[in-house]
User: What shape does this take?
Amino acid sequence: MRQVSTAVVTGATSGIGEAIARRLAAGGTTVILIGRSDQRLDQARRRILAAVPDADLRSERADLSLLADVRALAERLAASHPLPDVVISNAAVIAEVADTTTEGIQRTLATNHLAPYLLLRLLADALGDHSARFIVVGASPSALTRVPVDLDDLGCATGRGLGPLPSFRPFACYGRTKNMNAMFVYGLARRLDGTRITVNGVHPGIIKGTGLGRGSRGALRFMAAALSPFQPGPDTGADTPVWLATSPEVDGITGRFFAERKQAATAPHTTDPARCDRLWDESAHLVGLSPTMAAR
Assistant: This one.
């Protein structure tokens, strides 16, 4: 196992993120827990310490649906010592399609895609020649084949292509952002080629106890409740992300997507370079960055 000094885990206050943090801490890694609530961060910290009494944990509060919070978080992490050598972007939500943040961005888009886009780009600039692994938690490549990103409507404002059932539309919007995660992995890895930072995506599996479906309604709520007893728990979901963070088997491997510790192909609409570049440029505009990465 590769020794990881410091790891950042977003969405670390429950579910897969908390399981990732606990497993990394058990291996001797200093883990920086990212969550939007001081209370939930403290509760997660207590649970991890109950399982790993000597865990070295730090907490950083940030609402990842807000770009201002993401920028401030990136500044704090860039100023920390030692710099992180693993960053796992795990936080995700399924929000109503009409739910927008105080910054005017659809909440699912902001949290699931724009937050990792902004955070990892800013950290890549700050890390310089520091070696690091960036890991973005996505979703099922096969299921996501059916929900390609609408590059003219990233926030799903038109409702086009989201399906006839209103209760399923938030999930379709979520699925699009998970495809954005894969496209971002490929785009960032290509731009960081030749550096000491690797970027990979991962499908953790269909896992119960993530809290993603807590606001679901109608047919989607019924389906989630029916399937939950048959799904594995967060520790199963944490396995491949932790493996990507710590295994020497993936030294130098970048721009790939993994499921169950094996490389997995994502849909052609996520690998097309022109589509990935279009998403990159649109995302840069939304977060206020230049599409061009800083010279390294």
Summary: Residues 216-230 have pLDDT under 50 and may be disordered. Residues 169-191 form the longest helix (23 residues). Residues 64 and 70 are 6 Å apart (CA to CA). The longest strand covers residues 197-203.
